[in-house]
Design goal:
The chain starts with 16 loop residues before the first helix and ends in a 6-residue tail after the last helix. It has 2 domains: about 10-60; about 65-315, 2-enoyl-CoA Hydratase, Chain A, domain 1, CATH 3.90.226. The protein contains 14 helices and 8 strands. Helix 1 (about 15-30) runs antiparallel to helix 2 (about 40-55) and helix 3 (about 60-70) packs across helix 11. It is of the alpha/beta class. The protein is globular. It has helices spanning about 15-30, 40-55, 60-70, 75-85, 125-130, 140-155, 170-175, 180-190, 205-210, 230-240, 245-255, 255-260, 280-300, 305-315; strands spanning about 85-90, 105-110, 115-120, 160-165, 195-205, 220, 225-230, 270.
Amino acid sequence: MKQVLDLTDREILDFERPVIELLRTIEELRDASADGSMNSSTESLHKQVAKLQTEIFSNLTPHQKVQLSRHPLRPYSMDYISALFDEFEELRGDRSFADDPAIVGGMARFAGREVLVIGHQKGRNTKENVRRNFGMARPEGYRKATRLYRLASRFRRPIISLIDTPGAYPGIGAEERGQAEAIAKSLQVMFSVKTPIVSVIIGEGGSGGALALGVCDRLMMLEYATYSVISPEGCAAILWRDPAESPEAAKQLRISSEDVLKLGVCEEIIRESAGGAHRDPHTTARNLGIAIRDSLEELCELSEAELMAHRYDRHRKLGSYQE
């Protein structure tokens, strides 16, 4: 984990700044001590950090949760793949046009099982974000995903998808190459594969770009992840023609994990480390691994017919309501 003394302003959100400043004070006191040991003053500061962090993070607004889901230090798909999966072998290309680095996927071992893991991947710096297109996949990315879904189904390997994207890329080239058709085909194939599918929203779950990796038997969300048909900024631009209204849009869209769980769209919220996944990626990865393992154990007990019926019923219930 990056030391708080080394964090830049871009890597600190306004509402977490008081906590970071206290942690910086603790690090400075530790560095100033001869042996780097703890003393009564730093112990008192640690208690203040815990109290302040609890106060701040128990009262986050929807807009602040959106900011956390986009945090530049938040773990991405490849971080979780490295932490949780063994023998990962990345598979590239859609066998039609090109490879899309915005989506990564391949065969691996997880908790003793042979699985397919796939996910959106953002970049850590400008060069990497240009290559990964900020996690916004083009048609070749979704066609690669479709190819891998079919491969997993053929070899009866469970599918684990990690979702983290602002949405599908809306560029001219992507539209010319059939963006909508590629997403639609991904949805169709995910519905039809005869192997368990567990999806986890680890950051942003934006629109059809997220859904193309999210047709599943069990959907889970990290605590500060979001899931929505449109970004708060896009919603504010349409409804109020004012980007400053994005906090209100985030509230009305009900995109936080708690709201998505209440709406019955996801089945479980996975707790993050105190202060968000970026503060302690190892703890968050451990929680994520346990949740995925438990879900797979349940789903792998189902017969093929039961699995397909479960998937059908799950999606038929989405959006149902009573007046």
